[in-house]
């Protein structure tokens, strides 16, 4: 009898360890600024495609081409990866993306007011994110794979090897921005089409 109990316990523990990583709940205070940001992103086609030449691209670091598939890959590489770590990485990635898009636009570019407002709203979300979590969270050591990505993102441009640069359209970068936001802060966007896409790639994590 004791042997059976132990065996059942071992099986139960094994199933627990094999279960997919649960998504960390998004603080309710973040949903309002995230939805405001999402409203701005809903106009990205008009401002990031129609107001630029056909096939226009900008140069970004390869780590700034950040898609739901990249999130999936990181989760597979780092067992037990905390969702908050991925959210922190999302902020770091898109901070650089917005700066690069704004940098290529002259002061009178028709999309510049939109993009600067988008950056302001992004900063608002980041501010709420920081306030919603203990300061110790941002002092914790990052997993090696995440730290490596972080180091690439914060590297001085003149030190980045040519092979690490990619060309991407402003529209595609904001598409990535939007889809990964829906995935990483899913409680605020449960009914969106993008969330359905995220549900699909999250299934690949199941044993």
Level-2 CATH architecture: Up-down Bundle
| Mean of all residue-level pLDDT scores | 85
Q: Count the E strands.
A: 2
What would you give as the CATH superfamily? Interleukin-34
Gross morphology: globular
Could you give the order of strands across the largest sheet?
Answer: 1-2
SS field, number of helical segments: 9
Structure write-up:
InterPro entries: IL-34, IL-34_sf. Keywords: Signal. One of its GO terms (biological process) is positive regulation of monocyte differentiation. This is Interleukin 34. This protein has 207 residues and is mainly alpha-helical. The protein has one domain: Up-down Bundle (Growth Hormone, Chain: A). It is built from nine helices and two strands. A two-stranded antiparallel sheet has the order 1-2. Helix 5 packs antiparallel against helix 6. The longest helix is centred in the middle third of the chain and has 21 residues. It is globular.
